[in-house]
Amino acid sequence: MSIYESHYKDQPAISMESAVMRVQFLPSIGSKMASLIYKPRQLELMVQNPSKKYLIQPYDGHYVSAECSGFDEMFPTIDTCYYETYPWAGTKIPDHGEVWSLNWQHHVEDEHLFMSTYGVRFPYKLDKAVSFAAPHILQTKYTLTNLSDFDFDFMWAAHTMINLEDEVELVLPSGVEAVNSVSTDGSIGSYGDEASWPQFHTASGELRDLSKLRPQSTRAVEKYFVKGKLPEGWCGLKYHQSGFSMALSFPVETVPYLAVLPNEGGWRDIHNIFLEPATATFDRLDLARKRSEYSTVRAHSTYEWHLNISLSDGVNWNTVSQKGDLV
User: Fold this and answer.
1) CA torsion sign, 282 to 286 to 292 to 295?
2) Peptide bond into 198 cis (omega under 30)
3) Of the residues 22, 27, 50, 126, which has the fewest C-beta atoms closer than 10 A?
4) In what order do the strands lie in the sheet with 212-213?
């Protein structure tokens, strides 16, 4: 395993490499994971923007006008909204949150990449420690510190933009029974509509299986949240055509929600899926609070969680262990 300085397009980067994967981070641009390559097959698993130069947006800029690729940290919201309670009532939270556009401080120590940043409109510090828990498991440990005398409500989401191919299966924990749409239209229905998981009948009577991701020629895109809290903290993809798997795992006690956005050629003619473990629902902190589906870091306290990204040959697995192994 190694950690070394590199470049991603025209930006300085930090690369981390094991026998199984090679990953690049951009500490100066939101601590973004710009690239994740599965070395046994030389496959880039993160969506790449075709621009030769990295597209930068300023703080409070428009996220989709930026690079819009890879894996960005969403905090403390996804969609723009306004904080509702004292002492920050009426404070605007930027599009896709604060931290994706900020410069994070970083250093390397004992085969770990440490990155951290501070809030702009809210008094917090967010830390990440990235390392290989095993050659096939990249682990990021998060610590959120509330620097104020008041409790702070928040939404964190892992905005992973993962490349697809034909014949990919989405796998969720046993016990997931329904999802809620957060799209304005689509086969699930309008915003807030519910559908059973994995199969349901659309309004036109078609039987749809959400676990079977459709080809790019479908020209569809929609987003949904698993209804309520997850029974277990993981989700995964089986690439049946290429014969390998990818999984995300996280502590369900502190990251209880999951959003899924299959982009089957409907947005920018890209074939990808967004898998978004999250600490709140419906993409907006204010709506999450109304649904009582949000998280809080108490005054002068910390909130901790982790995210494992696991890669493995084969598709014969049923669950993901707490350590991140596909079993």
Assistant:
1) positive
2) yes
3) 50
4) 105-109, 112-118, 124-134, 137-146, 302-313, 244-249, 234-239, 168-171, 212-213
Q: Give Cα 19 distance to the centre of its chain.
A: 24
pLDDT in tens, 55-82: 999 999 999 999 999 999 999 999 999 9
> With 0-12 CB in 10 A as exposed, 13-18 as middle and 19+ as buried, what is 203?
exposed
Cα(256)–Cα(122) distance, integer angstroms: 23
How far apart, in Å, do the first and last CA atoms of the chain sit?
24
Contact 319, 238 (CB under 8 A): no
Residue 247 CA to its chain's centroid (Å): 12
Is the pTM higher than 0.85? yes
Pairing of strands 257-264, 244-249: unpaired
The full length of the chain comes to 327
Q: Letter for the amino acid at 244?
A: F
Where do we find the tokens 């390397």? 108
What are 256-311's pLDDT values in tens digits? 999 999 999 999 999 999 999 999 999 999 999 999 999 999 999 999 999 999 99
| Long-range pairs of 53-59 with CB within 8 A, sequence gap ≥ 24 | 53/9, 53/10, 54/8, 54/9, 54/10, 54/11, 54/26, 54/29, 56/29, 56/101, 57/101, 58/101, 59/94, 59/98, 59/101, 59/102, 59/120
The token pair that represents 181 in the structure block: 């749409």
The structural domains of the chain, ordered by start, are 43-313 (2.70.98.10)
Ramachandran area for residue 20 (φ above 0: left; ψ -120 to 50: alpha; else beta)? alpha
Give the span between the Cα atoms of 266 and 219, in whole angstroms: 4
Beta strands 257-264 and 152-154 are unpaired
Nearest 5°: the CA angle 193, 96, 324 is 80
User: Tokens at residue 187, please?
Assistant: 């086969």
CA distances to 51, 127, 136, 163 from 66, in Å: 11, 23, 30, 19
